[in-house]
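ok so I'm stuck.
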Amino acid sequence: MGKSKEKIEVIAYSGYRGEEIPRIILDHGKRIEVIEILSQWIEEQPENRERKRLFKIRGNDAALRMIYYDEKRREWFYVSND
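replied:
not stuck anymore, here's the structure
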């Protein structure tokens, strides 16, 4: 079992330090509001200068999701366990 990623569209709040905080996920045309951020952390890979901000969130549909923002690509992804 590995993890796969899927590019998603996220409407985020950008704070005064430029940090992106997810507020709304657009999942295949469905609008899901982020009602709770359960945890968040940063993963860095110095060898290729990748930096990802990961969020474990609960949406207004009660589902738990893990998403991340790839700072190098400036894109959001949904992480699923396959």
